[in-house]
Structures are given as C-alpha cells and as structure tokens.
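Hi, here's the filled form for the chain we discussed.

Project: internal
Contact: R.S.
Residues: 137
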Amino acid sequence: MSELTEFLGSELPPHLQAEFRLGIEQYNNREFFDCHESLESVWKQYLETDRELIQGIIQVAVAYYHLERDNFEGCRKLLGRGLGRLRKYRPSHLGLNMENFVAKVEVDYRLLESEDFLEKERLAVPKLQFISDQSDC
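And the returned structure, exactly as it came back:
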C-alpha cells in the first residue's frame, strides 16, 4: 500500500488520489484557483454521494480566493455553503482531519459575520491536514 493510499484510505479510487492530493496541497499553498481546478476535476469523476465533501472544500477555496480580492461578502457566502457541506464529514473523511478544519473555518465565518469586520488578516485561513500526516502540510 502506498503512502498516498494510506492517507486517503480506500474510499477514493486510485486513479483520483494523486489529483486529490495535489488539490489539497494547492489549497494549503493558498493557490485557491488551482485548487478549485484540480478538485473540480476529481469531483466530476467521483460520483459517490460523499463527493459533497470535495464540493465543500472547493467552495471554501473559492471563498478564500474572494477574500484575497477583498470580496468579503462573496467569501462569507461561500464559507457558509462550504461549511454546510463539510460539517457532516467530521471528524474525518477521505483521510482528511475535518474536525479541526471545520472548526477553524467556522471561526473565520463568524468573524466575517461580525459587523465590525474590516481586516482580512484576522482570518485564520486554515490548512487541510491528512490524518496520518505529521507535518503541517
């Protein structure tokens, strides 16, 4: 079993695992547009019901893409949509630690909802971590 298969478990077909991993790495490197492209390709090919997790990650990535462009309303809306999809996959799914990620995205979402929010630097923009990954991706 490869290291990548151990990260992802047996839920994601082998032919999609490398692109999924690439999308997660792009997200963690704040390459949100590229992450969207990579994960959308996986999402289109992976037709199981839990593909909604991938869609939620895409929405969070696009939210932070909006944040980089000072589109706070677009960021808030997409974080809300993404969270709605991601919460049900806690504590983990497809080898990802969803518990910590969702909790940190929720903090960012609450900050964006506060009336006095003006500084995007206050947001955490959390990273996605694989469960057996010891590094901070």
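Let me know if anything looks off before we file it.
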